[in-house]
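Action item from last meeting closed. Structure (101 res):
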């Protein structure tokens, strides 16, 4: 069942734009908001990178590892995995918005 939940989360990860991960900020970071958004976006992007890597390399038990890692991160923040991924999408959208200001 946990693996099925993981498979349901993969489409959410696909919503992340690869351009986000390669861009430099066009302005100086000068607020807690900027730092918080950048930190959370970076943490969320790890999941996309992990999923991409697993899809390409098909490491034995890699899906299970990613799923457990996601559950652990969500639990650490007192969220369930779907809430955590929704938060990732929302904060990534903020990041893109502020990046384009």
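Sequence:
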């Amino acid at each position: 069942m946990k693996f099925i939940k993981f498979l349901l989360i993969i489409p959410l990860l696909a919503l992340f734009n690869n351009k986000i991960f390669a861009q430099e900020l066009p302005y100086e970071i000068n607020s807690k908001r900027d730092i918080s958004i950048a930190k959370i976006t970076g943490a969320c992007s790890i999941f996309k990178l992990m999923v991409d890597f697993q899809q390409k390399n098909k490491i034995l038990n890699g899906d299970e590892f990613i799923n457990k890692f996601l559950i652990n991160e969500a639990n650490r923040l007192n969220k369930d995995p779907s809430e955590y991924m929704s938060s990732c999408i929302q904060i990534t959208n903020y990041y893109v918005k502020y990046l384009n200001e």
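Note appended to the action item: The first helix runs from residue 2 to 14.
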